[in-house]
């Protein structure tokens, strides 16, 4: 299998049990997660040598984060140790017409204050097949944005395929700041992943979609995909297409463009959603695996969509499924019958 590198922040997620509200509870469930860490776990589950690059404190909570990754087979050799904080976020799970809510407490985390000398990116990228990052990492801090650029440069020097999930987070930066950082970074990217909102806010491309009401028309993406590929030279552009009927009922499919042909996946009706956090990351992990191991972009996309549909049935940020389970769903086994 392949050596896959991801760069980002793993955070301590504190969530009320079930669908309780923050104001109701006296305790929180402890869950670990974060965009690129979630992708690394997916890739490790599919049998790859998945390495997560970050910085974490040397204290016990920092070690707990490292241990959470190791539990699922992620290689932690390239995690620098030091700094004072592990980033925290609070997540309240929505239901029906009540949306989920996220509150960040991640300022001045170890990775946000990390310096270039904490990492030897040329050594990290040596022998790698794939490097993945998301727009969350450069949004954390200016220092993290510089680390992202240095990692991308090293990946290109080593001939590594680079993917980016645009992942705009309005609680971390403005669209103006995002575009000033993200657009120059696109020169390093081979595979661009992002939904309709990400493409508009990170790169300035607006598809024909009613984002707020969860109405998406795949045909509205085609001209946007073509324009993005033409401007930045992407080998692939992919986007998930989420129809949001409620917090616990979504339609889910995706589209990919390889510069010549478009492919639209089958659609999944996810009802009920157990936990949608990490759904996009599981799509990225599935797409990386698919593009590395499958012969067509259609096969890769169907794997990615099935993987992300399964993720949304699993509590927590990590997608804890095997490649065989994903292939079974992609092949049509969606009845949920007990396997004996």
Can you tag this structure with a few keywords?
single chain, 340 residues, alpha/beta, 9-stranded mixed β-sheet, 4-stranded mixed β-sheet, 11 helices, 17 strands
What share of residues is helical?
A: 25-40%
| Separate helix tally | 11
User: How widely separated are the two ends?
Assistant: 30 Å
What is the overall silhouette? globular
Question: Biggest β-sheet, characterized?
Answer: 9 strands, mixed
Q: Helix-strand pattern, N to C?
A: EEEHEEHEEEHEHHEHEHEEHEEEEHHH
Briefly note the structural class of the backbone.
Answer: alpha/beta
Low-confidence stretches: none
Mean pLDDT: 93
Give the beta-strand count.
17
What is the strand content? Answer: 15-25%
| Structural Rg | 19 Å
Give a description of the structure.
The structure is a single chain. This protein is of the alpha/beta class and 340 residues long. Helix content is 35%, strand content 23%. The protein is built from eleven helices and 17 strands. The strands form four sheets. Strands 1, 4, 9, 10, 11, 14, 15, 16 and 17 form a nine-stranded mixed beta sheet that branches. A four-stranded mixed beta sheet has the order 3-2-7-8. Helix 2 (60-71) links the parallel strand 5 (55-56) and strand 6. Helix 1 packs across helix 9, helix 9 (279-293) runs antiparallel to helix 10 and helix 10 (297-311) crosses helix 11 (323-330). It is globular, with a radius of gyration of 19 Å. The protein starts with a strand and ends in a 10-residue tail after the last helix. The model has no long low-confidence stretch (mean pLDDT 93).
